[in-house]
Design a protein that fits this description.
Helix content is about 40%, strand content about 15%. With about 250 residues, the chain is an alpha/beta fold. It is globular and about 50 Å long.
């Protein structure tokens, strides 16, 4: 039996890897970029979505990463982070997602003067706004955050501790992101897993994936009710006709 798009949309779904800066609504990106004077490849929402999608599927890392320079540029204030997170939750819920684990690197959003903790709190506020809005539209969704540390910025211990400090409110895991060339897996894993071993209770510390990856550590259980959400993702919505850039 072949399912129709509407039938697929109606199925409950789980998303375990979605990026805060990996798929903003094109219209939102255009609006926020204009406010700060940031130049985009296009100011037409459909064309901008197509450009990002083509770059993501080009098989070229440089082209793939171009979009992140644009998305992170508009994600340097609490208001913008909160709005983007709210819209992300609403879009995911409209796509039939009932649970999501959402990842982002707080250190990528401090250029406007926010502290790392303020970044986490702004995203969390947006998630809670989005859950409320989705519920009003008849969609229930839960979400949890995975905080990333960027290999090349050498702040992995700090970000791991940030995730631990916020695990009771919104964070369920810590992960490593960024360029792999020049950053051996063994060195990165040893540095991050050491922090996890010394600060995480062993019952709640387990690898995120079936393949052992010691730098991706679980930090606690996801919230159990639809109103108790966690922080951190954005994406575009197929339900509303927008094209997801798929920058994972």
């Amino acid at each position: 039996m072949t399912l129709t798009p509407n039938e697929i949309l109606a199925l409950p779904k789980v998303v375990l890897h979605d990026h805060l800066d990996g798929g903003l609504r094109p219209s939102t990106l255009i609006e926020l970029a204009a406010e700060i004077g940031h130049e985009l490849p296009s100011t037409d929402p459909d064309e901008l979505a197509r450009i990002f999608s083509d770059n993501a599927d080009a098989g070229d890392l440089v082209r793939y990463l171009e979009a992140f320079a644009h998305t992170t540029a508009v994600m340097q204030s609490a208001d913008n982070l909160r709005r983007i997170a709210r819209e992300a939750v609403v879009d995911l819920a409209a796509d039939g997602v009932i649970y999501a684990e959402l990842r982002y690197a707080p250190e990528q959003h401090v250029a406007g003067g926010l502290t790392l903790q303020q970044v986490v709190e702004a995203v969390q506020d947006g998630i809670e706004d989005g859950v409320s809005e989705a519920l009003e539209a008849g969609h229930a969704i839960r979400a949890a955050a995975i905080l990333d540390a960027m290999r090349h910025l050498d702040r992995s211990l700090e970000i791991a501790q940030l995730a631990l400090d916020n695990r009771g409110r919104c964070c369920v895991a810590f992960d490593i992101a960024g360029p792999e060339l020049g950053f051996p897996r063994r060195t990165t894993a040893r540095r991050s897993s050491c922090c996890a071993r010394t600060t995480c209770p062993s019952p709640s510390t387990r690898a995120r994936r079936t393949e052992p990856r010691p730098w991706a550590r679980r930090l606690g259980s996801a919230p159990r009710d639809a109103s108790a959400t966690a922080c951190g993702f954005t994406r575009t919505s197929t339900a509303s006709g927008r094209t997801r850039s798929r920058m994972e």
